[in-house]
Design a protein that fits this description.
The complex is a heterodimer of chains A (129) and B (199). Chain A is mainly α and 129 residues long. Chain A contains four helices and no strands. Chain B has 199 residues and is of the alpha/beta class. Chain B has two domains: 34 residues, no CATH class; 145 residues, Nitrile hydratase alpha /Thiocyanate hydrolase gamma (Nitrile Hydratase, Chain A, Alpha-Beta Complex). Chains A and B meet through helix 1, helix 2, helix 3 and helix 4 of A and helix 1, helix 2, helix 7 and helix 8 of B.
Chain lengths: 129, 199
């Protein structure tokens, strides 16, 4: 608790999702489904809950995790969607991420293979007449 | 819910954010293009340099400073700075006798349109809980040594009212232009955890 500036002096938004969840929150507030003051109250509640359990906010990640929980809680309370509706959409996002990761690994393996045994190849070949 | 989070490498917060965005888009509540625009705005356009412009203007234009201290948002609007995120911006001026520092004890209220987004330490439990109890010690730990004769005022930001510290103009900058002065102003000085010096 003694160190304030370190070890978490770092640029804001170290995770891409933290900037995204921030922007989704602002966009939702602009649409009028809740005010930023109402969101602030939800965020305060999540932070209080976290700290009451003896945990500290000690990084951007832990802070925006509370933010993510607060946004979810507020939207569920406002009945914009239910937990049952949220679950399959989350599963689809996970499946898409896993598929993307497999494709990337496949791509990387091919690269490794090619790098190990370079095959000079013409870029384009026009067949003989 | 932690078990569910290990099926892919993607952090559960990222999965949740994507799912919430997709549901709100389907409902017609948000437009992903607007979300993209906000992301770009906060990545590129907003940051402490905006606040630095306000401070430099206040140092060089006494009438502007008067207006800034009277109504922060209105004065910032004169410079084309603002946004819907705060209702009231109170500017507190440092002097040789008084030093101001800003915290949000409950969460992380911060003048986004003026300073961009808060640094990680501003949101930390340690800073939020300690600055209001032992500001001199906390500021010293952060590298700001204030004389015992200086009064420290700690301002607690809430969602309706945000604070901006107007730092003291560094000595030896009499000949500086407004632009040169703006270069000297740091985010930490506008939160009140640092002082400024001429380079």
């Amino acid at each position: 608790m003694s160190q304030i500036r370190n070890p978490f002096e770092q640029p804001s938004f170290v995770n891409p999702w933290s900037l995204r969840v921030f922007a989704v929150t602002l966009a939702a507030a602009e649409s009028g489904i809740f005010s930023l003051q109402e969101f602030q109250q939800a965020l305060i509640a999540e932070i209080r809950k976290h700290e009451a359990h003896g945990h500290c906010i000690d990084s951007d990640e832990s802070y925006y995790t509370r933010w993510t929980e607060a946004l979810t809680a507020l939207l569920l309370t406002r009945k914009l969607f239910t937990g049952e509706q949220l679950a399959p959409v989350e599963q689809a996002a996970r499946d898409a991420a896993t598929a993307m990761q497999r494709a990337q690994e496949h791509h990387d393996r091919q690269h490794i293979h090619r790098d190990a045994r370079p095959q000079p190849r013409p870029l384009f070949v026009e067949a003989a007449q | 819910m932690s078990d569910l989070h290990h099926t892919s490498e993607k952090p559960w917060q990222a999965v949740r954010t994507e799912a919430v965005e997709s549901l709100l888009t389907e409902l017609g509540v948000i437009d992903p293009a607007r979300v993209d625009a906000i992301v770009r705005h906060y990545e590129n356009a907003v940051g402490p340099k905006t606040g630095a412009r306000v401070v430099a203007k206040a140092w060089t234009d006494p009438n502007f400073k008067k207006r800034l201290l009277a109504d922060g948002l209105a004065a910032c609007a004169e410079l084309g700075i603002g946004g819907p995120e705060t209702e009231y911006l109170h500017v507190v001026e440092n002097s040789p006798k008084v030093h101001n520092a800003v915290v949000c004890t409950l969460c992380s209220c911060y003048p986004w349109p003026i300073l961009g987004l808060p640094p990680a330490w501003y949101k930390s439990s340690a800073y939020r809980s300690r600055l209001v109890r032992e500001p001199r010690k906390v500021l010293t730990e952060m590298g700001l040594l204030l004389s015992e004769s200086v009064e420290i005022r700690v301002w607690d930001s809430v969602s309706e009212i945000r604070y901006l510290v107007l730092p003291e103009r560094p000595a030896g900058t009499e000949a500086y232009t407004e632009e040169q002065l703006a270069e000297l102003v740091t985010r930490d000085a506008m939160i009140g955890v640092a002082k400024l010096e001429a380079v």
